[in-house]
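Thread amino acids onto this structure.
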């Protein structure tokens, strides 16, 4: 039995509560070994096709991590750019359970070989956030993906928050969409809230384990997350927006941030209550 990290343990938590759930991890690895090769093969044969096997894989990841995802609202249909707040790497499987879409991720995520491989199965768009001069080209890459009919998931904060509130959204990568260079795309704001841990409200002391912040690498953060054993994530799909009605990318970004922030506050206030 592994001891609880002293800086994260609370008075009522025993060491047993921090045990990594190997009874789920081992079956997950076995089943993932069956799902990943066909997904890789499909991506090789049909590089422009968004594979459907990613959704079962994300469902499997959520089961292994002890994540229960509760949706609210309706997902937009057609070609959609989903704009969500960003709390943790766990946002990706939580959204992937419902959305068949391409993610936008920072290029440094590709430095980890395994993470790059998994991201490529999702046809992830890698961008250089630290190079503002590349913003136009990267915006064009997102626009091209949407024009081809692919839906895209983006985290406009450009980093993960500490779970207190969504950080300000960056507008540079929305330039192509805001200019309305092609019709038919919808913008759907999405609020992601980590509302409960083991059926208890996710109080402030839990946030360092839930949010991916500080100097934690993704694997260190994953270990801390696994020790929680049962996490509820509420995802609120807000009414979609038409980007053509906004006067530029900054106005569009400000409106999306307002909607996502309001939805996040409401989720943390309403959905932490015991069922």
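Threaded sequence (275 positions):
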């Amino acid at each position: 039995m592994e001891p609880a990290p002293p800086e994260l343990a609370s008075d009522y938590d025993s060491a047993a509560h921090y045990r990594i759930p190997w009874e789920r991890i081992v079956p997950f690895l076995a089943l993932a070994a069956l799902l990943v090769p066909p997904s890789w093969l499909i991506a090789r044969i049909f590089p422009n096709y968004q594979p459907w096997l990613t959704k079962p894989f994300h469902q499997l990841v959520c089961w292994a991590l002890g994540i229960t995802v509760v949706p609210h609202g309706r997902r937009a249909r057609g070609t959609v750019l989903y704009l969500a707040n960003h709390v943790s790497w766990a946002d990706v499987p939580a959204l992937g359970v419902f959305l068949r879409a391409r993610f936008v991720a920072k290029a440094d995520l590709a430095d980890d070989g395994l993470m790059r491989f998994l991201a490529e199965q999702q046809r992830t768009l890698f961008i250089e956030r630290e190079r503002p001069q590349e913003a136009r080209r990267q915006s064009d890459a997102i626009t091209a993906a949407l024009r081809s009919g692919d839906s895209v998931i983006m985290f406009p904060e450009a980093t993960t928050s500490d779970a207190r509130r969504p950080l300000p959204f960056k507008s540079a990568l929305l330039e192509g969409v805001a200019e309305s260079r092609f019709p038919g795309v919808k913008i759907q704001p999405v609020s992601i809230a980590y509302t409960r841990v083991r059926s208890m409200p996710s109080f402030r002391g839990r946030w360092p384990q839930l949010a991916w912040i500080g100097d934690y690498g993704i694997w260190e953060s994953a270990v801390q997350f696994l020790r929680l054993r049962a996490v509820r994530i509420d995802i609120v799909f807000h009414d979609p927006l038409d980007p053509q009605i906004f006067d530029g990318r900054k106005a569009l970004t400000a409106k999306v941030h307002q909607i996502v922030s309001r939805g996040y506050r409401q989720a943390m206030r309403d959905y932490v209550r015991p069922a």
